[in-house]
User: Fold 2OG-Fe(II) oxygenase from Kangiella geojedonensis.
Amino acid sequence: MQQMGLGFEQKDEILVLDSDQSNASVQYYPNFIIEPEASNLLSELLSGVEWQAESLWIAGKERLVPRRVAWYGDPDAQYRYSGKLHQPLPWIEPLKRLKAMLQSELNTSFNSVLCNLYRDGKDSMGWHADDEKELGHEPVIASVSLGQARAFHLKHKTNPKLRHKMTLTSGSLLVMQGTTQQYWLHQVPKEPNITEPRINLTFRNIKV
Ligand SMILES: O=C(O)CCC(=O)C(=O)O
Ligand SMILES: [Fe+2]
Assistant:
């Protein structure tokens, strides 16, 4: 079996938002998965994940969300997103492997992962917080990015001066925890010039 990078080293940690100043706790590890593992994992997941089109009701009309999605997890980890209840698909090997790595690095447990495929720069995710009640109080969300680097924006829900823009590169890990989801929103904006795909995996722990 191919060997995956052993996860981040302490020196690679970048503190993005610090709870003392901003009511958010966001850390970025640019080298969580190194090459060639990141590229291998990208191709494995592009073909191995059961990517689905997802629709949403907006103002009485059903619209496709601008990305492909898939939800994997333990059988009891049901999750509501885009207004619908989702039954998890059973874990596949590469996702199980990543989950184990994250659990030991972050010393927490996850029972599910939301996979998002941004086929090109026309795909995106609008402003939102991952604050569904199933995630519990102060959830830890571990977000792994593979493939095309994309912009990621954070903004405080009420203070317009508090904003943060960053680029999530291939193999990186972004951890959002503490009161981040309570006080902040995040988005992946469209970047029309981008033609290459990106996969993002957000590992979560659904309270069952
Ligand atoms: O694609 C990303 O980096 C973010 C995904 C996200 O916010 C989510 O799945 O809730
Ligand atoms: Fe999110």
Notes: The mean pLDDT is 92.
